[in-house]
Amino acid sequence: xxxxxxxxxxxxxxxxxxxxxxxxxxxxxxxxxxxxxxxxxxxxxxxxxxxxxxxxxxxxxxxxxxxxxxxxxxxxxxxxxxxxxxxxxxxxxxxxxxxxxxxxxxxxxxxxxxxxxxxxxxxxxxxxxxxxxxxxxxxxxxxxxxxxxxxxxxxxxxxxxxxxxxxxxxxxxxxxxxxxxxxxxxxxxxxxxxxxxxxxxxxxxxxxxxxxxxxxxxxxxxxxxxxxxxxxxxxxxxxxxxxxxxxxxxxxxxxxxxxxxxxxxxxxxxxxxxxxxxxxxxxxxxxxxxxxxxxxxxxxxxxxxxxxxxxxxxxxxxxxxxxxxxxxxxxxxxxxxxxxxxxxxxxxxxxxxxxxxxxxxxxxxxxxxxxxxxxxxxxxxxxxxxxxxxxxxxxxxxxxxxxxxxxxxxxxxxxxxxxxxxxxxxxxxxxxxxxxxxxxxxxxxxxxxxxxxxxxxxxxxxxxxxxxxxxxxxxxxxxxxxxxxxxxxx
Length: 490
Ligand code: DSN
Fold this sequence. Notes:
The chain has a seven-stranded mixed beta sheet with strand order 4-10-9-8-7-5-6, sandwiched between helices. A three-stranded antiparallel beta sheet has the order 11-14-13. The chain has a two-stranded parallel sheet with strand order 1-12. By secondary structure, the protein is of the alpha/beta class. It has 21 helices and 16 strands. The chain folds into three domains: 1-28, no CATH class; 72-332, 3-Layer(aba) Sandwich (Aspartate Aminotransferase, domain 2), CATH 3.40.640; 335-475, Aspartate Aminotransferase, domain 1, CATH 3.90.1150.10. The radius of gyration is 24 Å and the shape is globular. The structure holds D-serine. D-serine (DSN) binds at residues 57, 120, 179, 229.
């Protein structure tokens, strides 16, 4: 396929379009020998262009972010961190990583940044173990009068190792909006330490800081986690830090979902975790709009432990992804990112308001961030899976989600989570959000369950919804700078 040739025939100013040219050249190149891969990329582009992406944890990265990953940096091993590597020849990876670290520090006003985690789960793993090593292993090694863990006898080593699993981790329960890595039984986090959880107030759906404090004082966790995957409100991190200090815990904030809102200064004061948390973990690809990956910010006192994340817990860093992270941090420093972050929240609140105006009740009665949670069982008589599959068949991707004390369990669940980061990147504003709420409401209210995983609507409602969704998508094209003609397969 000659994507590039076709584009160049109509391109008046080549220098202004180097990103598009590079993108199309790469597609052309892949398509020559690897048509299955090229077609899958084209199909994904087509599918993302043709659907309303309302998955709260997804976004669209810039072509610069994507292109930075396609180069020879991927070929280099660089265990260790800048200036302290276990491999030779890492000078240029040092340049990339140091630049990413410095840019992350200035973006978030953090004392230190670590940009190697391959995902948010990896970032949490490194953070948990840094806390365990700093607070459990190091003092125990010192108390034995030994210089390092390597100098311990096998018996001494075993005694200290047993101490790790006695420690406690306190986080928001999964069905109340917490993340799997915050102590869920099906995740490693509940097996390496004893996991305890706090929930939300059954009436308001809000985190009750008194309850958090009571549990924290009773359980005395080593780590207190604040952060969420599906909690539609803000967390007061100053309060969380007070609780952590009172019970002797290290405060870890997982801002994977709202990192972009912090970067864009839409969350400030007590709602910005960076000044309050000992350690902040994140992904880089959600509201932050970077490449898929993880990030850790920490206070200086944790730097020596966090920087040992590789090879302690991580395999070799991904230099090409660190390059891309650096670019996304730089993009988030642009003043336009502030407007973007603000609009994400405004869009979520517009959706919430419109749903409420139609009598739909929302978990916590609204939103302060980038997502909202609807109990579709209560509002529309559908389980989460039935609602998710129906909306997906119309070109509208949301994900089913548990609600607090979910009567339908974790697989079918009772809720859907709706997020605005991706469509905000695409240029959707309040007017489009109102339209989306109208479409979703019209469809969900007509739907009738059909088995546990599906639901049906009349052909009339389906074709009207489809037409309205297509119109919204056509008015705000995704990656308009990539011209691929009819997207025909190679
Ligand atoms: N999968 C992400 C989410 O959807 O929230 C978190 O890991």
